[in-house]
Design goal:
The complex is a heterodimer of chains A (about 300) and B (about 250).
Chain A: E1 6-15, E2 18-28, E3 33-37, H1 44-51, E4 59-64, H2 69-74, E5 78-81, H3 93-103, H4 110-117, H5 132-144, E6 150-154, H6 162-176, E7 181-186, H7 189-195, E8 198-203, E9 206-211, H8 213-218, E10 223-228, H9 234-241, E11 247-253, E12 256-261, H10 264-274, E13 279-285, H11 288-298, H12 303-306
Parallel strand pairs in A: 3-7, 3-8, 5-6, 6-7
Antiparallel strand pairs in A: 1-2, 1-4, 8-9, 10-12, 10-13, 11-12
Chain B: H1 3-15, H2 17-39, H3 52-70, H4 72-81, H5 84-89, H6 95-123, H7 131-144, H8 146-158, H9 161-178, H10 190-196, H11 200-213, H12 219-243
Helix pairs in contact in B: 1-6, 2-3, 2-6, 3-6, 3-7, 3-8, 3-11, 4-8, 4-9, 6-7, 6-8, 6-12, 7-11, 8-12, 11-12
The chains are: A alpha/beta (about 300), B mainly alpha (about 250).
Chain lengths: ~300, ~250
Amino acid sequence: MDIPALELAALSKSFGQLTAVDGIDLTIQRGEVVALLGPNGAGKSTTIDLALGLAHPTSGTARLFGGDPRAAILAGRVGAMLQGGALLPTTTVRQSIALVAAAHRAPLSIDEALDRAGIRDLAKQRVSKLSGGQLQRARFAIAVVSNPDLLILDEPTAAMDVESRREFWHSMREFTAEGRTVVFATHYLDEADSFADRIVILNSGRIVADGTPAEVKSVVSGRSIRFAVDAGEADAATSALSRLGGIRSLEQRASRFTLVSDDSDATLRSVLHLVPTAHDIEITAHTMDDAFLALTTSAATSTDTVTVGA
Amino acid sequence: MPFRYIALESLRQLRNLPSLVFTFVVPLMMLLIFGSLYGGSGQQEATTGLPWLVVTTVQMASYGGMMAALSQAFAITTERSVGWNRQLRVTPLSGIGYLVSKVSAALLVALLTVTMLCLVSMVVLGARMDASHWILSIISIWIGVIPFALIAVAIGQFAKPQFAQPLFTVVFLGMSVLGGLWIPLAVMPSWVISIAQTVPSYWLNKLGQIGAHGTGDALTPIMVLAIWTAALAVLITWRYRRDAARQ
């Protein structure tokens, strides 16, 4: 196996009492497109800062291409769109890109960076006059100007409307088609689902799920079956249901039960056989949002049970 | 050293010239007022034998150069607050490279200010001195401005945007008064004169006067200014490395 593009080992970062990143192990191979998904405050931005060597870990290590992050930056192998990392408001887009390019050792031409971001028409525009979406794409041009092998993007499509988001991911596709590695933080599930080949879900500074979009979705795949029994029959129902096979989970609250099953038809037949008095039956399908919610709400206490894939 | 970056950065600051008009106007006014006050009758300064007009010109050129350099602090605070420095940290630009780019930008603007003030003194007030003495004087002031360029970077790096202005005011007032750039130190109480010996603006003016005179002990001012420069450079590069982390 090649040396991984990014390797985080037992990485932790505390700010006083607050532990922003709490023991993250993550290896990303070259050519992977990985989404870091998580709610605000999950530790995504801090993880990115640590990976880039912008912040020093409290413990653990971050390596890029097998070495110190700074070495990878010096070699021009890493490009980044940071949160709060911006262009200079008083310059034009071209001037800002030219400044960053001049700080690199073997940059692309300014025109090529503009083309990759699809913003050649904005070159002479003053940065302070850009819309939110245009600004993000100008920042993308800055991130790619060193012609990096690894792109790290912190919420690249924040402040973009639907149309510019689509165009942005189109530029990104061209970039990844050349076999480069992309790690992007987002809290848009659909983005992670459609653009990443791997989704890493963070919550409270920990990885709570790591797998392909399909695997992550399958954590709560199948359907939920909810039903109630009469108050006096709850215990009998519980023991009857213990013989039920092929279900993912069973939850009981007083006389209400929730089952999760990959084959809801078969499970429902069995349930009706075992608990004939079941009533108020509901069957619902899960979505990516459910997967996300399930993982990020329960995860802090039950990390191991929800980690999927490899 | 990233020369391309340093050149672009310096040129960028030159494009901001309109904002520097205000730092230029005050020394210009003071030069015109004090220059015609002292200079008209051609008196000479007792210890150096230089015409008072030249002494005043060097004083005001030092003040103008210092202000041009110090006012770079505002651009730096703004750049930091929009996250520009964070973006730069993801480039090979080192703390030293960053420092050199900022200092050379400040020096370029300062050189322009100092030269302009000397020209005004020559053309408008009729100050006369050998061309070589003018050049030596301008170069001396220019070198003396280096620590102020570093002070500007330090203010820019440490002060939050809302504190940059008051901090700048305290620094430039203190430096102007204590360094004898506004009022000759001779009229000050002795304790002020002893404090003055520790501030770089005193030695900036001193170096300019020595340059104009063409003789004198230039080593002491250069040493003091070099110590200021070295101490500030250490502080700034240390800060640049720490600064990238999100707050």
